[in-house]
Amino acid sequence: MLLDITQTILPVVQVPLLLGSLVLFWHIWRFTVNPFLNPSGVKELPYWIPFFGHVYSFFWNSVELLESGVDYTGRTHEPFAINLPGTRLYIVTRPRDVTDIFNNQTGIDNDYSLREILLAYGVTSDGLKRAWHRPQPGDWCYVPNNPLNPEQMCFIKMVQDGYRKHLLTPVTMDQMAQVFVRSLLENIQPDNISYCMAGDTHLFSIYALSRYAMIEASAQSMFGSHLHEIDPEIASHMLAFNDYAWQVVMRYPDFFGRLPVSKPRKKMMAIMKQFVGRPVSSNSQANAFVRNVLAGMEITALDMHSRAAMMLMIFWAAVSNEYNGTFWLMAHLLHDEALLKQVEQETEAAWQSGQLNIKHLTESCPILDATFNEVLRHKNAAGAMRRVAEKTRIGNKELQPGSIAYIPFHQIHTNEEVWGDNSLVFDHTRFLKRKSLARNASFRPFGGGATYCPGRTLAKQEVFSAIAIILHRFDVRLAEVGHGKQQFPILNVKTPSLGLNGPIKGMDVIAEMVPKQEK
């Protein structure tokens, strides 16, 4: 009978009807029958187009997609899966599951993300092979009793170990912080902030101020004056690159160099090639970590393109979060007069005999600290990726090898079981009322496990210093522009995030900043 009915349908309708029936059958099997037969498998978030899966939703608005996945599990926060062409992502948001992923050293490949980013930045396949090669006697890169690498680690591990030691050793971290603060003091003063003017006298763009001052300071604290010697406009070039660096990491196809990132990337690579191509002795103003990386590159005999790509990636990693963190802190202070006054009182006490005491700033300003933690929680739509190397059990679910475990920070930072019913609301007092929240497994602004960011303490010092300098040198308040109070800037969650998100394009905070000596 079904055949008879089918034969009465016009041929032009038969093919779409058949295809639609096949897709419906596939959908029922994959998302209803298969999960029932395989209860230990991770549930997939349903989709209708085979192969392509969730690719459009993921790149258009990943936060919205992942939130719908959490809803699909009944907000139990059990792992669920989304599919991109050729890749399955297991989304992990439950605190104990997140901890298990970060701490797993056997079933999870913790180097996956780093390898992918290095390749995306342009490190060659030969460069990658050399970077992960562990020196053995007789090798081209083996140096007996190497003071730079006494444990004969591969270059990548040597860099990671050196980065941790440099940023977690008080002496070297303090040296870097002092250079950073000196640059901020130079670039955030009444006679030197024309780069962020917003029209009338005393009106300034907080976003432009945060971006330029923090990038300049990072360049100085890492490379001394060397990048400025190559190109005095290094901060502008890096900002232009950083605005679209996500296109590099996501490996957007670049047809004829037409991507927005293409021109600034080419410029930054040219600068970095000049920098890494100079004798190490000519880069003496760079900090000890950067000098050690340059020396290690020479021993490992990396090609110049790979050296430049790695150095650009290191610079990018250092600047990706600081200026957005500074911007959002200032935004919340300016939109909350009471909070602004409290933080100003705290930070002013860190100025002693005309000098900024960074230790006091980071240890004795609880309201500033709580507000910063809330910024890290509320403005972060990035995530951590790990490759599943072998069958791995997380809770009562089994992750299959070859897939990717993805930990989205926005979803773990808004888990209502941890953060309460107001998890979507910015409320700095939550970290004052419950100080243990800063150590909660559901608070992961700096990742975790083997890749727990060693620069977290330095980043805090840098952001706090910028806030303290602004509030010490200027009377600041939210400017009156247009009609009524300025709208609070909206978080940009549509652009793929690699750290703290910025505001959507065109949004800003305009502040009236009057130098205190003018009063």
Automatic annotation (TrEMBL):
Membrane-spanning ranges: 9-29
Domain of life: Eukaryota
Gene Ontology MF terms: heme binding; iron ion binding; oxidoreductase activity, acting on paired donors, with incorporation or reduction of molecular oxygen; steroid hydroxylase activity
InterPro entries, per database record: CYP450_sterol_14alpha_dmase (IPR050529), Cyt_P450 (IPR001128), Cyt_P450_CS (IPR017972), Cyt_P450_E_grp-IV (IPR002403), Cyt_P450_sf (IPR036396)
Keywords, in A-Z order: Heme, Iron, Membrane, Metal-binding, Monooxygenase, Oxidoreductase, Transmembrane, Transmembrane helix
Binding site for heme: 453
Cofactor: heme
Pfam family, one: p450
Family: Belongs to the cytochrome P450 family.
Record-given protein name: Cholesterol 7-alpha-monooxygenase
Species of provenance: Cytospora mali
